[in-house]
Amino acid sequence: MGVSTSLGEGSTPLVRATRRASGVFFKCEGLNPTGSFKDRGMAVAVTRAGQAGARAVVCASTGNTAASAAAYAAHVGLEAIVLVPAGATASAKLAQTRAAGARLVQIRGTFDDALRLARELGERDGLVLVNSLNPDRIEGQRTVVTEILEQLGREPDLIALPFGGGGNVSAVAAALADAGVTTKIVVGESAVRASTFASAIRIAEPAHAANVAMLVDEGRVHIVSLSEGELRDAWRALAREEGVFCEPASAAGIAALDRAGVGDAATVVCILTGHGLKDTAAVADEHTADSVEATLDAVLEAVE
Fold it and tell me: Which helix (H) or strand (E) holds 252?
Protein backbone atom coordinates (compact mmCIF):
# COMPACT_ATOMS: atom_id res chain seq x y z
CA MET A 1 0.00 0.00 0.00
CA GLY A 2 1.72 3.15 -1.17
CA VAL A 3 -1.14 5.61 -0.89
CA SER A 4 -1.05 8.20 1.88
CA THR A 5 -3.93 7.97 4.33
CA SER A 6 -5.89 11.16 4.98
CA LEU A 7 -9.41 12.11 6.00
CA GLY A 8 -8.62 15.82 5.90
CA GLU A 9 -7.05 16.12 9.32
CA GLY A 10 -5.35 19.32 10.44
CA SER A 11 -6.02 22.97 9.63
CA THR A 12 -8.15 23.29 12.76
CA PRO A 13 -9.28 26.75 13.89
CA LEU A 14 -7.31 28.98 16.24
CA VAL A 15 -10.01 30.96 18.06
CA ARG A 16 -9.32 34.10 20.07
CA ALA A 17 -10.87 34.10 23.54
CA THR A 18 -13.44 36.81 24.22
CA ARG A 19 -13.82 36.55 28.00
CA ARG A 20 -10.19 36.06 28.94
CA ALA A 21 -7.03 38.07 28.41
CA SER A 22 -6.69 39.42 24.87
CA GLY A 23 -3.74 37.16 24.07
CA VAL A 24 -5.45 33.83 24.82
CA PHE A 25 -6.34 31.52 21.91
CA PHE A 26 -8.00 28.12 21.64
CA LYS A 27 -6.68 25.56 19.17
CA CYS A 28 -9.83 23.54 18.47
CA GLU A 29 -8.58 20.03 17.72
CA GLY A 30 -12.10 18.65 18.13
CA LEU A 31 -12.71 19.73 14.53
CA ASN A 32 -10.46 17.00 13.15
CA PRO A 33 -12.33 14.27 11.20
CA THR A 34 -13.13 11.95 14.10
CA GLY A 35 -13.40 14.77 16.62
CA SER A 36 -10.00 14.70 18.32
CA PHE A 37 -6.31 15.49 17.95
CA LYS A 38 -5.55 11.78 17.54
CA ASP A 39 -6.24 12.02 13.81
CA ARG A 40 -3.01 13.89 13.11
CA GLY A 41 -0.84 11.04 14.30
CA MET A 42 -3.16 8.26 13.18
CA ALA A 43 -2.97 9.39 9.55
CA VAL A 44 0.80 8.85 9.62
CA ALA A 45 0.74 5.64 11.68
CA VAL A 46 -1.90 3.90 9.56
CA THR A 47 -0.23 5.01 6.33
CA ARG A 48 3.06 3.49 7.40
CA ALA A 49 1.44 0.36 8.77
CA GLY A 50 -0.13 -0.21 5.38
CA GLN A 51 3.11 0.49 3.57
CA ALA A 52 4.83 -2.08 5.79
CA GLY A 53 2.32 -4.75 4.73
CA ALA A 54 0.25 -4.91 7.93
CA ARG A 55 -3.11 -6.64 7.77
CA ALA A 56 -4.40 -4.87 10.88
CA VAL A 57 -3.66 -2.11 13.35
CA VAL A 58 -4.17 -2.54 17.08
CA CYS A 59 -4.57 -0.08 19.92
CA ALA A 60 -5.69 0.34 23.50
CA SER A 61 -7.85 3.35 24.15
CA THR A 62 -9.98 5.41 26.49
CA GLY A 63 -12.00 6.25 23.36
CA ASN A 64 -10.46 8.82 21.03
CA THR A 65 -7.62 6.62 19.79
CA ALA A 66 -10.15 3.85 19.20
CA ALA A 67 -12.39 6.02 17.03
CA SER A 68 -9.46 7.42 15.10
CA ALA A 69 -7.76 4.08 14.48
CA ALA A 70 -11.03 2.52 13.36
CA ALA A 71 -11.79 5.32 10.89
CA TYR A 72 -8.34 5.53 9.32
CA ALA A 73 -8.02 1.75 9.06
CA ALA A 74 -11.43 1.54 7.36
CA HIS A 75 -10.40 4.28 4.94
CA VAL A 76 -7.55 2.17 3.55
CA GLY A 77 -9.02 -1.30 3.99
CA LEU A 78 -7.09 -2.45 7.05
CA GLU A 79 -8.64 -4.20 10.02
CA ALA A 80 -8.63 -2.40 13.37
CA ILE A 81 -8.45 -4.28 16.68
CA VAL A 82 -9.37 -2.02 19.57
CA LEU A 83 -9.09 -2.78 23.29
CA VAL A 84 -10.90 -0.53 25.78
CA PRO A 85 -11.51 -0.79 29.54
CA ALA A 86 -15.05 -2.05 30.06
CA GLY A 87 -17.50 0.54 31.35
CA ALA A 88 -14.96 3.37 31.22
CA THR A 89 -15.32 4.70 27.68
CA ALA A 90 -17.74 7.39 26.50
CA SER A 91 -20.59 5.88 24.47
CA ALA A 92 -20.10 8.27 21.55
CA LYS A 93 -16.54 7.05 21.10
CA LEU A 94 -17.63 3.42 21.21
CA ALA A 95 -20.30 4.22 18.61
CA GLN A 96 -17.69 5.74 16.28
CA THR A 97 -15.46 2.72 16.71
CA ARG A 98 -18.24 0.24 16.02
CA ALA A 99 -19.56 2.21 13.05
CA ALA A 100 -16.17 2.02 11.34
CA GLY A 101 -16.19 -1.77 11.69
CA ALA A 102 -13.40 -2.23 14.21
CA ARG A 103 -13.12 -5.41 16.24
CA LEU A 104 -13.89 -3.90 19.62
CA VAL A 105 -12.90 -5.83 22.75
CA GLN A 106 -13.87 -4.50 26.18
CA ILE A 107 -11.34 -5.57 28.82
CA ARG A 108 -12.36 -6.21 32.42
CA GLY A 109 -9.57 -4.02 33.73
CA THR A 110 -7.98 -0.60 33.35
CA PHE A 111 -6.58 1.25 30.38
CA ASP A 112 -3.15 0.15 31.52
CA ASP A 113 -4.26 -3.49 31.26
CA ALA A 114 -5.61 -2.81 27.77
CA LEU A 115 -2.36 -1.16 26.69
CA ARG A 116 -0.30 -4.07 27.98
CA LEU A 117 -2.37 -6.49 25.92
CA ALA A 118 -2.31 -4.22 22.85
CA ARG A 119 1.48 -4.07 23.01
CA GLU A 120 1.63 -7.86 23.12
CA LEU A 121 -0.71 -8.11 20.13
CA GLY A 122 1.36 -5.56 18.24
CA GLU A 123 4.35 -7.91 18.37
CA ARG A 124 2.53 -10.50 16.25
CA ASP A 125 3.10 -10.80 12.52
CA GLY A 126 0.85 -8.56 10.46
CA LEU A 127 -0.26 -6.40 13.41
CA VAL A 128 1.00 -2.89 14.11
CA LEU A 129 0.47 -1.01 17.38
CA VAL A 130 -0.84 2.51 16.71
CA ASN A 131 -0.87 3.90 20.23
CA SER A 132 1.43 6.87 20.82
CA LEU A 133 4.24 4.46 21.70
CA ASN A 134 4.48 4.18 17.92
CA PRO A 135 6.82 7.06 16.89
CA ASP A 136 4.75 7.64 13.73
CA ARG A 137 1.93 8.87 15.96
CA ILE A 138 4.19 11.42 17.62
CA GLU A 139 5.50 12.56 14.25
CA GLY A 140 1.99 13.28 13.00
CA GLN A 141 0.91 15.06 16.16
CA ARG A 142 3.80 17.51 15.90
CA THR A 143 1.95 19.27 13.07
CA VAL A 144 -0.28 21.09 15.55
CA VAL A 145 2.69 23.27 16.51
CA THR A 146 3.49 24.07 12.89
CA GLU A 147 -0.10 25.26 12.43
CA ILE A 148 -0.10 27.33 15.61
CA LEU A 149 3.07 29.15 14.51
CA GLU A 150 1.63 29.77 11.05
CA GLN A 151 -1.76 30.93 12.31
CA LEU A 152 -0.31 33.28 14.91
CA GLY A 153 2.53 34.51 12.72
CA ARG A 154 4.78 34.34 15.77
CA GLU A 155 5.65 31.98 18.59
CA PRO A 156 3.34 31.91 21.61
CA ASP A 157 4.81 32.52 25.03
CA LEU A 158 2.88 29.62 26.52
CA ILE A 159 1.02 26.51 25.31
CA ALA A 160 -1.39 24.69 27.63
CA LEU A 161 -2.81 21.21 27.08
CA PRO A 162 -4.04 18.11 28.93
CA PHE A 163 -1.70 15.43 30.26
CA GLY A 164 -3.11 11.93 29.93
CA GLY A 165 -0.66 9.43 28.49
CA GLY A 166 1.85 12.15 27.66
CA GLY A 167 2.12 11.46 23.94
CA ASN A 168 0.75 14.82 22.89
CA VAL A 169 2.88 16.64 25.48
CA SER A 170 5.93 14.88 24.03
CA ALA A 171 4.91 15.72 20.46
CA VAL A 172 4.33 19.41 21.21
CA ALA A 173 7.63 19.70 23.08
CA ALA A 174 9.54 17.99 20.25
CA ALA A 175 7.95 20.22 17.61
CA LEU A 176 8.76 23.39 19.55
CA ALA A 177 12.37 22.26 19.89
CA ASP A 178 12.58 21.51 16.17
CA ALA A 179 11.20 24.97 15.40
CA GLY A 180 13.83 26.55 17.65
CA VAL A 181 11.31 28.40 19.79
CA THR A 182 11.34 28.78 23.56
CA THR A 183 7.62 28.51 24.26
CA LYS A 184 6.86 27.12 27.72
CA ILE A 185 4.32 24.32 28.20
CA VAL A 186 1.79 23.99 31.02
CA VAL A 187 -0.13 20.74 31.31
CA GLY A 188 -3.06 19.76 33.46
CA GLU A 189 -3.63 16.27 34.85
CA SER A 190 -6.29 14.90 37.13
CA ALA A 191 -5.25 14.40 40.74
CA VAL A 192 -7.32 11.19 40.63
CA ARG A 193 -6.03 9.82 37.36
CA ALA A 194 -7.53 6.34 37.67
CA SER A 195 -11.07 7.54 38.39
CA THR A 196 -11.49 11.03 36.94
CA PHE A 197 -14.76 11.90 35.24
CA ALA A 198 -12.64 13.27 32.36
CA SER A 199 -12.46 9.84 30.76
CA ALA A 200 -10.00 10.74 27.98
CA ILE A 201 -7.25 11.26 30.58
CA ARG A 202 -8.30 8.40 32.86
CA ILE A 203 -4.84 6.85 32.67
CA ALA A 204 -3.14 5.80 35.90
CA GLU A 205 0.28 5.09 34.38
CA PRO A 206 1.18 7.50 31.54
CA ALA A 207 3.10 5.71 28.79
CA HIS A 208 5.31 8.76 28.27
CA ALA A 209 5.80 9.57 31.95
CA ALA A 210 9.59 9.34 31.77
CA ASN A 211 9.85 11.75 28.85
CA VAL A 212 7.45 14.24 30.46
CA ALA A 213 9.46 14.04 33.70
CA MET A 214 12.61 14.84 31.71
CA LEU A 215 10.88 17.85 30.15
CA VAL A 216 9.90 19.02 33.63
CA ASP A 217 13.49 18.66 34.81
CA GLU A 218 14.64 20.73 31.82
CA GLY A 219 12.21 23.50 32.78
CA ARG A 220 10.22 23.18 29.57
CA VAL A 221 7.04 21.71 31.08
CA HIS A 222 5.11 22.57 34.22
CA ILE A 223 2.55 20.03 35.49
CA VAL A 224 -0.53 21.13 37.43
CA SER A 225 -2.47 18.45 39.34
CA LEU A 226 -6.16 19.32 39.28
CA SER A 227 -9.17 18.49 41.40
CA GLU A 228 -12.34 17.24 39.75
CA GLY A 229 -13.99 20.53 40.66
CA GLU A 230 -11.31 22.54 38.88
CA LEU A 231 -11.67 20.40 35.75
CA ARG A 232 -15.46 20.76 35.76
CA ASP A 233 -15.36 24.51 36.33
CA ALA A 234 -12.96 25.08 33.43
CA TRP A 235 -14.96 22.80 31.13
CA ARG A 236 -18.25 24.55 31.95
CA ALA A 237 -16.73 28.01 31.56
CA LEU A 238 -15.40 27.28 28.09
CA ALA A 239 -18.87 26.45 26.81
CA ARG A 240 -20.81 29.09 28.74
CA GLU A 241 -18.39 32.01 28.42
CA GLU A 242 -16.67 31.30 25.10
CA GLY A 243 -19.14 29.10 23.22
CA VAL A 244 -16.45 26.43 22.81
CA PHE A 245 -17.79 22.96 23.60
CA CYS A 246 -15.04 20.43 24.32
CA GLU A 247 -14.99 17.12 26.13
CA PRO A 248 -14.06 17.43 29.83
CA ALA A 249 -10.47 16.23 29.49
CA SER A 250 -9.80 18.90 26.87
CA ALA A 251 -10.30 21.62 29.46
CA ALA A 252 -7.40 20.39 31.61
CA GLY A 253 -5.00 22.88 30.04
CA ILE A 254 -7.38 25.75 30.74
CA ALA A 255 -7.84 24.56 34.32
CA ALA A 256 -4.07 24.41 34.72
CA LEU A 257 -3.78 28.04 33.60
CA ASP A 258 -6.59 29.06 35.97
CA ARG A 259 -4.57 27.59 38.82
CA ALA A 260 -1.02 28.50 37.79
CA GLY A 261 -1.68 31.79 35.99
CA VAL A 262 0.11 32.95 32.85
CA GLY A 263 2.78 35.11 34.44
CA ASP A 264 4.09 37.64 31.94
CA ALA A 265 3.00 35.59 28.90
CA ALA A 266 1.40 37.89 26.32
CA THR A 267 0.30 35.14 23.93
CA VAL A 268 -1.15 31.87 25.20
CA VAL A 269 -2.51 28.96 23.14
CA CYS A 270 -4.71 26.35 24.81
CA ILE A 271 -4.93 23.11 22.83
CA LEU A 272 -8.45 21.69 23.21
CA THR A 273 -7.99 18.06 22.26
CA GLY A 274 -11.51 16.73 21.68
CA HIS A 275 -15.02 17.88 20.75
CA GLY A 276 -17.75 18.04 23.37
CA LEU A 277 -19.92 15.64 21.38
CA LYS A 278 -17.39 12.93 22.19
CA ASP A 279 -18.78 12.73 25.73
CA THR A 280 -22.35 13.97 25.88
CA ALA A 281 -23.04 11.92 29.00
CA ALA A 282 -20.91 14.39 30.94
CA VAL A 283 -23.44 17.10 30.10
CA ALA A 284 -26.44 14.87 30.72
CA ASP A 285 -25.13 14.12 34.21
CA GLU A 286 -25.27 17.83 35.06
CA HIS A 287 -28.44 19.08 33.39
CA THR A 288 -32.08 18.08 33.35
CA ALA A 289 -34.89 19.83 31.50
CA ASP A 290 -38.49 19.59 32.68
CA SER A 291 -41.24 19.51 30.07
CA VAL A 292 -44.01 22.14 30.20
CA GLU A 293 -47.43 22.59 28.68
CA ALA A 294 -47.55 24.01 25.15
CA THR A 295 -48.63 27.49 26.29
CA LEU A 296 -46.84 30.81 26.35
CA ASP A 297 -47.51 31.23 30.07
CA ALA A 298 -45.88 27.89 30.82
CA VAL A 299 -42.85 28.75 28.71
CA LEU A 300 -42.49 32.18 30.34
CA GLU A 301 -42.69 30.63 33.79
CA ALA A 302 -39.96 28.15 32.85
CA VAL A 303 -37.54 30.76 31.55
CA GLU A 304 -38.11 33.55 34.08
Answer: helix 252-260
The answer to the question of residue 2 being in a domain is: no
What region does 63 belong to: left with phi over 0, alpha with psi -120 to 50, or beta? left
Q: What is the pLDDT of residues 118-134, one digit of tens each?
A: 999 999 999 999 999 99
Indicate whether 57 belongs to any domain. yes
DSSP-derived 3-state class of residue 189: strand
Q: Indicate whether 240 and 99 sit together in one domain.
A: no
| Full-model pTM | 0.93
CB contact at 8 A, 302 and 292? yes
* Domain hosting residue 117, numbered range: 38-134
234, 258 contact by CB (below 8 A): yes
What amino acid is encoded at 37 in this protein? F
- Decide: 45 and 62 in contact? Cβ < 8 Å: no
pLDDT digits (tens, 9 = 90+) for 76-85: 999 999 999 9
Cα angle, residue 90 at apex, residues 272 and 250 outer, rounded to 5°: 15
Residue 137 in contact with residue 130, Cβ under 8 Å? yes
**Beta strand pairing status for 103-107 and 79-85?**
parallel
